[in-house]
Amino acid sequence: MLVLEDIHKVYGKGKDKKVEALKGINLRVEKGEIFGVVGYSGAGKSTLIRCVNLLERPTSGKVLVNGIDLVRLPPAKLRQERKKIGMIFQQFNLLQSKTIFQNVAMPLVLEHRPKEEIKAKVAELLSFVGLEERMHHYPDQLSGGQKQRVGIARALATDPDILLCDEATSALDPNTTEAVLALLRKVRDELGITILMITHEMNVIRDICDKVAVLDGGKIVEQGPVIDLFTEPKTQIARSFVKTVLNDSIPPSVQKLIDESSKDNPHGIYRILFKGASTNMPLLSNTAKQFSIDLNVLHGMITELQGIPFGNLLVELKGDPEEMKRAIQYINDHEAIIREVEKNGI
Amino acid sequence: MAFDWSWFWPQFFTAMGQTLYMVAVSLLISIIIGIPVGVILVITRENGIWENKWIFNILNVIINIFRSIPFIILVVAIIPFTRWVVGTAIGTTAAIVPLVLYTAFYIGRLIESSLLEVDKGTIELAQSMGATNWQIIWRFLLPEAKASMVLNLTIATIGLIGASAMAGAVGAGGIGDLAITYGYNQFQTGVMIVTVITLVIFTQLVQTLGNFLSKKIRRK
């Protein structure tokens, strides 16, 4: 289990030069969880993940790994604890002068493990990531995806409890990204390793994270289960991230109707969000049957997020205002959220 | 005035031996001093793994001092020191002292630049694995910089060959001395040509060997 408590990180000295990269970060990653931190460049993601294994020392705050505060450990103890925290990098950081075998063996060589043990362990790790036949190649003979697999195998060599992923898929193409994400899921599922990842790619969060935190200006502005962030983003920045993978913007024709509306002439356009069980029931058709209103679907999509169905529809309601109110109430009572679309499209 | 070539060749081979001796011994000692100097420069600099402003600045100034003195002046300036180290200020062995001072700090600078070329991520990686500073230097920094270091050492060796020719000024002998004594002072153009060609071939050989080794290390 990994807990960050009130982490602050200030760079530079002197009044004018000080830059506060992290402003009181609180995070809690449960054992076996895949936790994603998403943010734009400059939000402090990179500093945040480096504060976990103290590649960057926090200016204040606690980093608790299985209950031990790393910040207070003497150097030798800290090095021991770091062996329980694997890390993979955006640029892979493979040693160019060494073979794949030697790269993966490195953490074990540093521990002076016996040769035979190293050989067996590296073979096991390379077969786990599917690269055993590449053992004697050099990094520059591998593709980006293969390099990251080597990075993962190496990070697992010391049987860590936690794996830190620093933009692990940002340098990869979409297909390779998918394969690497699948491997990371396997790392969690089969080895029970807790994963903390930072990324600016919302599809990564959507595809493998259980929980997500949105980092902006050195602060976590929103955090919770991924499905909640996607269905009900609370902050503008979270909404803009969600939009990058689930386009819920309003088409121009509908926007025109909204723009032309006024208080006396309401547009009657609503957004309905439903997830989980409610997608399985014919909610819209039931509503149309039970109330004497017209219900017209204008735009929308239904998708699945980590096995949970999720829909986001734009509908136009027409009819007697009282009847519409009752219909809206009915929808709200059935595990769906309905709200009138505002002029800014939210 | 005819030149007695039969008398020249034995001289020439003695001179070759002296040059090889000076260059080889100076190079070896310079590398032994220069590599640690380069490593210290890299680890003690700002944001280095063993940041130490004092050591870095002092070493930096010392290197700059030695790098800024022309070799021929250095030879003369450190005569007392040379005498103290090898017991004499004249001869081939005596020339090794200024050659080492001149080359070791140069190598220190070159090694520094080779080590600085190593990706910052490599050090982050090493630290994330829980490597000690010693392990970071031995297992990560030096091996990753090896190919570049070999090329830079080749540059230093060629510089050293040039300097060794000037060491003739303190009676060190060697090919350069031969060129000055016979070729220049006695207007023996033939000797001048032979010695210059020898130095050119020597330099070519060193550079070719350096390129080959570096390529082999890089495997590309």
TrEMBL record, chain B:
Looking up Pfam families in the UniProt record yields: BPD_transp_1
Record membrane topology: Multi-pass membrane protein
Looking at the record, the residues that make up the ABC transmembrane type-1 domain are 16-210
State the InterPro entries in the record.
AA_ABC_Transporter_Permease (IPR051322), MetI-like (IPR000515), MetI-like_sf (IPR035906)
Known PROSITE patterns for this protein?
Answer: ABC_TM1 (PS50928)
Task: Read off the SUPFAM superfamilies from this record.
Answer: MetI-like (SSF161098)
Q: What is its main location?
A: membrane
Locate the transmembrane regions by residue number: 20-43, 55-79, 85-107, 149-170, 190-213
**Compartmental location:** Cell membrane
Keywords, comma-separated and alphabetical: Cell membrane, Membrane, Transmembrane, Transmembrane helix, Transport
* Cellular compartments per GO CC: plasma membrane
One GO-annotated biological process of the protein: D-methionine transmembrane transport
Query: In which family does this protein belong, per the annotation?
Result: Belongs to the binding-protein-dependent transport system permease family. CysTW subfamily.
Q: What is this protein called?
A: Methionine ABC transporter permease
